[in-house]
Amino acid sequence: MPSNSHFRRRTSRSLIDRFGYPHLLAGTLALVTATILLGVAAKATGSGLACQANWPQCDAGPFNLLPANLPSFYEWFHRFVAMFAGFAIIGSALAAWRSSSVDKRVTALVVLGMLLTPIQVTLGRETVTQYTMDILSLHFWTAVLIFSLFVVATVLVWQSTLTASHVTGALALGFVALPLHVALSPTDLGVVTEYTPTIQLLQYGVTLALLASPIVATMVGRWRLEDRRVVPLFSVSVVLAFAVAYLGRQAVMNFSSTLDVVYLAAVALLAIAFAAGLGLTRSASSA
């Protein structure tokens, strides 16, 4: 009979051979992104406390495994997608660990994501049983950390196909996402008069794009652009993007109106960094 190690090697090989590891990782990133946005939707609609505050069960069907109403369905569907995202994270990590063809940096990133997953699951349970702002914030930022790890890992596995034009595209995405983030944020500018669940979902979707774009630009720019000035500039834009994402949250803005000014200052600096990056990229491409 084949040994357990032989079975595990066959399993990891079949995952990579069947889907291709870059596609497997991209699919995992898509599931992580969907899980974050569904979690935002559940919180924004007040569905996080649906399912009669049960976890992991819900409030209907055999063993309370199904939702009883629409709010419960939102929470149930979030957990359903999160379950598949967790399986995909574990599968990606095990496949990378077992395959010698996967870059060791990628393996380290996805294994770290796998190790963070049970922490994230525990925090998800606590958002149902306790529902405090501290727990909600930890749950969100752990999800963002996992998302960022998989963005970096995905860029690494697609390195050979990425060109300087992808740097321009990533910077352009960030430049477009930035004013949208301001427009959708709960600032005192009066752009958004009511911070509805739809507005929150759109804002967090824009936030994820805003976080991913400078990461992609920094990594690909380092590989494909000869102008060395772009690397520190893009690296600063990553830090600024995370600052904008943090300061643009409703929980942070509600703390003090002064933080609105800090948020707008970070937005202005990030816009300058994106514009300068686009200028340098175009100059490097035309040279």
Automatic annotation (TrEMBL):
Annotated Gene Ontology cellular components are: membrane
Sequence intervals crossing the membrane: 21-42, 76-97, 106-123, 135-158, 165-184, 204-223, 230-249, 261-281
On whether Magnesium is a keyword of this UniProt record, the answer is no
The protein's topology relative to the membrane is: Multi-pass membrane protein
Q: Name one GO molecular function term.
A: oxidoreductase activity
The biological process GO terms on file are: heme A biosynthetic process
Q: What is its main location?
A: membrane
Listed pathway(s): Porphyrin-containing compound metabolism
Keywords attached to this entry: Cell membrane, Disulfide bond, Heme biosynthesis, Iron, Membrane, Metal-binding, Oxidoreductase, Transmembrane, Transmembrane helix
Q: Where can this protein be found?
A: Membrane
**What is the top-level taxon of the source organism?**
Archaea
Which InterPro entries has this protein been placed in? COX15/CtaA_fam (IPR003780), COX15/CtaA_HemeA_synthase (IPR050450)
Protein name per the record: Cytochrome c oxidase assembly protein subunit 15
Q: Which organism is it from?
A: Natronobacterium haloterrestre (Halobiforma haloterrestris)
